Amino acid sequence: MSGAVRWGVLATGGIAERFTTDVASLPDAEVVAVASRTEASARAFADRFGIPRAYGDWASLVADEDVDVVYVATPHHAHRAAAGLALEAGKAVLCEKAFTLNAREAEELVTLARDRGLFLMEAMWMYCNPLIRRAAELVRDGAIGEIRTVQADFGLAGAFGPDHRLRDPALGGGALLDLGVYPVSFAQLLLGEPDSVQAHALLSPEGVDLNTGMLLGWASGASALLSCSVVADTPLTASVTGSEGRIDFPRGFFFPERFTLLRSGTEPEEFVNTDDPHSLRHEAAEVMRCLRAGETESPLVPLNGTLAVMRTLDAVRDRIGVRYPQEALTRV
User: Fold this and answer.
1) Is residue 226 within 8 Å of residue 213, measured between CB atoms?
2) Is-above-0.70 flag for pTM?
């Protein structure tokens, strides 16, 4: 692929706005089309960002011959349908997280992409962040020895009423898929898929998780203590402790501005992000690099890793008793 990579944005919510803004900062990218369930919404979005074409349905976007890659920014309950539609149309896809409602849907998308030789990636921007990549590299190189524990949390105290999407089982509501995917993905970036999963949660009257604690274990003896919440403003920090040191991330570990490496007998070493840590352009740049290189999967956000995270999220929901209506006829 040569020239600018042409993006189609599917959905017009807040994350789509951020992505479109950040992609505009890349010199070799162009958003050429946007789609929503209504033409009015798509047109308003297109006018705001100077996008040439606006569609009131998803099918028209994925059929647009000028679109090279589709960014799926819908809520996660619609990811399987939206990403699947784009893949069926022969488009490369970057799909927001949580990748799907469950591992079964994720496996269906991955199989479809691999069978057709198409690019597919979860929009786990944390994995593309330069500081997260540096920390993972230090861990792999043995800077803190063998990992013993990982701690991470993502919680916010929101006034979410019963009619909010985060309380709606039909929309995949709850803390786990919206927020818990970050600490789980952080732990699995460093340790891979866990061998054991334990969890406890406070459930809403609607049956979604409001506050969830997770204990993941690995055969190596490593463990991860993780939490997510939509009813508590947690520290949003992360720590990785090894046999020879520790890495600490301050508040906002999933878009870090800095982290500290602590090792016995040495002064703490601070690593600082000189780039905008909140930007989504790093994941967009990785997609475009892959497309130009003819790669159908990203080594930074591998599909097998995405599948492993989805299996862990399924296991957590199994432990806490959360099941979505769409899953009634199919075992997760």
Assistant:
1) yes
2) yes
